[in-house]
Write a structure and sequence with these properties.
This protein has 491 residues and is α/β, with parallel strands linked by helices. The protein has two domains: 2-256 and 473-490, Rossmann fold (3-Layer(aba) Sandwich); 280-467, Glycogen Phosphorylase B (Rossmann fold, 3-Layer(aba) Sandwich). It is 37% helix and 19% strand. It contains 18 helices and 19 strands. It is globular. Bound molecules: adenosine-5'-diphosphate and alpha-D-glucopyranose (GLC). Alpha-D-glucopyranose is lined by residues 17-19, 22, 172-173, 222, 255, 390-394, 413.
Length: 491
């Protein structure tokens, strides 16, 4: 099958969250199965042209209100096999992408021209196929930034070269929908009847994700539990009705992880590699982590780790909210160390700084740091993810692979990947709680810490069971192939 991934992020080129990991690792897994896979991304300012090859000639992209001229660069996706490499196309346009930031900047969190930037990029996907003469069987779009791709395929790209192409749209996060003033609709170059037929209309605004959900041949999200949650009014972010209307064409496929990158036996970012057979390197990682975060080197005190975007979705209000969050009491009442790496909402960054300065066992690094994220996964004793909702979540799977039992809320992909510890039978892979309250977080961290001090053999067994879980893409990549085949059937 010829598969084109149209995305706004893919590691190692551009990343704000798990979407970037998923796009790359799925592409590589599909290529390993023998399919011809290509990825198309904007060439953001941070992706240097120096390392890329330029395709000859310009790329003309007609949009409402005129034609935009750009260039196409290419590179081979790192991690590709020589036999079947994944090619990456980069759409280069100075006006739209020649600035710092993927979706926004500190002073402008959602760039005002985002609807125009991503309408341009989504149109460019098709023009790039024409330019290269490579027409995919499947175009796989991800989240609101490329949700226009299935809309264009259905309503605009009707010539024979795309007549055999079907579209799949993956929801990574229903909380971000790309809702803008409908004045921006003109940039799509579509007729106004499409605005209503394709479901752009959203209380007199334009909703890009909604139009994609209405138009794509097949839809999915990134875990079975999250798929169920999104069909309810509690979890559907106002799009549950649209999703219910497409229920026969919508399912949950659990993400895999890239076991070449997230593997303690091969990880170059930790001091000593380790595996379930020989765990001694984990103690070295813990010592390095304590040093990196300027904490006392105490091997027998449990370390709770977090790596996260600091947004409401991740439960940071209940954990760090000034005067009601549980982090303060957790660190005051329990003999533990707490480390966190993250960036995000300003109030939360400030709160983390304040906790770091008031508590001797709490340390935060505000920033984005790939290397330290590996060290936290490896060196912590437990990994905390109290998410309000979690479409899949990759960090809990990384932490399981690193022998670091996760402490998670029972939601979405967290519920699908972590089995609660049972101290009577000694089963499970982590610690799970239901309610998103400061009290529940406090109690569940307390339970893990209690088990660390009082049930050590059971905790060690918990680590090993987590490490034996198979979260590789082997199974899920085949599920995507089945989904693509169904999409082609519909087409
Ligand atoms: P989400 O995509 O909702 O943020 P995921 O768990 O799916 O959640 O993926 C988050 C990804 O981003 C992981 O690979 C995680 O390690 C990474 N990440 C998040 N924040 C940081 C940070 N501050 N530094 C390094 N990596 C981070
Ligand atoms: C989103 C979700 C996260 C998921 C990731 C990759 O960012 O918030 O849960 O793991 O996409 O699919």
């Amino acid at each position: 099958m010829k598969i084109l991934m149209a995305a706004s992020e893919a590691v190692p080129f551009a990343k704000t969250g798990g979407l970037a990991d998923m796009v790359t690792s799925l592409a590589l897994a599909l290529a390993r199965l023998g399919h011809e896979v290509r990825i198309i991304l904007p060439r953001y300012f941070g992706i240097s042209r120096d390392k890329l090859r330029q395709l000859p000639g310009p790329l003309g992209v007609s949009m409402g209100g005129g034609e935009a001229w750009s260039a196409v660069y290419t590179d081979t996706l790192p991690g590709s096999s020589k036999k079947n490499p994944v090619e990456v196309y980069f759409i280069d346009h100075e006006g739209f992408f020649g600035r710092d930031g993927i979706y926004g900047s500190p002073s402008e969190p959602d760039f005002l021209d985002n609807p125009r930037r991503f309408a341009f990029f989504s149109r460019a996907v098709f023009q790039c196929c024409r330019k290269t003469g490579w027409f995919p069987d499947i175009i796989h779009a991800h989240d609101w930034p490329t949700a226009l791709v299935p809309v264009f395929l259905k309503y605009r790209e009707r010539d024979e070269r795309f007549s055999g192409t079907a579209s799949v749209l993956t929801i990574h996060n229903l909380g971000y929908q790309g809702v803008y003033s409908k004045d921006n609709f003109s940039y799509t170059g579509l007729d106004w009847n499409v605005f209503y037929n394709a479901g752009f209309d959203d209380w007199n605004m334009m909703n890009l994700l909604k139009a994609g959900l209405v138009s794509a041949d097949k839809l999915n999200t990134v875990s079975p539990s999250y798929a169920r949650e999104t069909l309810t009014s509690a979890g559907g972010f106002r799009l549950d009705g649209v999703l219910r209307s497409r229920q026969g064409n919508y399912l949950g496929v659990l993400n895999g992880i890239d076991t070449h990158v997230w593997n303690p036996a091969k990880d170059p970012h930790i001091p000593v590699q380790y595996s379930a057979k020989d765990m001694s390197g984990k103690a070295a990682a813990k010592a390095a982590l304590q040093k990196a975060f300027n904490l006392p080197d105490t091997p027998d005190v449990p370390v709770i780790g977090m790596v996260t975007r600091l947004t409401e979705q991740k439960g940071v209000g209940e954990l760090f909210g000034p005067s009601y969050g549980s982090a303060w009491s957790i660190c005051r009442d329990m003999n533990l160390q707490f480390v966190i790496l993250g960036t995000g909402e300003a109030w939360c960054e400030n709160e983390l700084r304040s906790l770091s300065s008031h508590l001797s066992n709490f340390r935060a690094i505000i920033g984005y740091d790939e290397e330290r994220s590996h060290l936290i996964e490896a060196g912590s004793d437990f990994f905390l993810m109290p998410s309000r909702y979690e479409p899949c979540g990759l960090n809990q799977m990384y932490s399981l692979a690193y022998g670091t039992p996760p402490i998670v809320r029972n939601t979405g992909g967290l519920a699908d990947t972590v089995e609660n510890f049972d101290q009577d039978t000694g089963t499970g892979t982590g610690f799970v709680f239901d309610d998103l309250t400061p009290q529940a977080i406090h109690n569940t961290v307390g339970w893990a810490v209690w088990a660390y001090y009082n049930r050590r053999p059971q905790v060690e067994a918990l680590r090993l069971r987590g490490m034996k879980q198979n979260f590789s893409w082997d199974v899920s990549a085949k599920r995507y192939i089945a989904l693509y085949e169904d999409a082609l059937g519909i087409r």
